[in-house]
Amino acid sequence: MGRKERRLRDRQELKLSMLEAARAIALAEGWSNVTMRKIADRIEYSHAAIYAYFENKDILLLELVHEGFRLLEADLKRARAQAHDPEEAMRLLTHGYLEFAWRYPELYRLMYGLDGVTFSISEPEKEGLQIEDVAILTVKDVLDFHGWSTEHLADQVYILWGTVHGLVTLTLADRIRGGQAAQLIEQAIQGMLLAWKHETDTAHSTSPSEHGAPL
Fold this sequence. Notes:
Blueprint: H1 3-29, H2 36-42, H3 57-81, H4 86-103, H5 105-111, H6 126-146, H7 153-172, H8 178-205, H9 208-211
């Protein structure tokens, strides 16, 4: 390895150590207590020199938000790939979401602003939209598999995501236990499947084409 390559590797490793230090501080003290000076102290590096890697704290946090969404997307796609049918894919997707939050609670809080984190720059939307795309595909596969209506697909996706996100938030706030969240999401999925079936059955039973058009 040449001198230039070694220098680039060292810079990348130092940058990663800064990100890891920020996460460690957040896990122990919360994101509101993460400062550039604390990060520098933790890795025993010059406070001023950190700004050669990150212009400010917002830029550093944004890097972690991007990382969090990349990890979450990979976890959800991996969970979907293990399923044998669309309903199992939806269950594995939701449990994969829960497991991500338990494994990376500090990242999850940062990604969704649960620790009072605010950015002076716009939060990224691209990764969040990719997560939404995975959820849309998963729910649509279930509806198509059963021949159920997709008329309210967007609403159904947001209800599913809102339920899972809400259970994660309650768990991170110590309102419920992680195991309880997994049980509740199973009950919620069963309720959603019944509701989606009922919605389609009701639409079919009231369709003019089945009862004849009025004279």
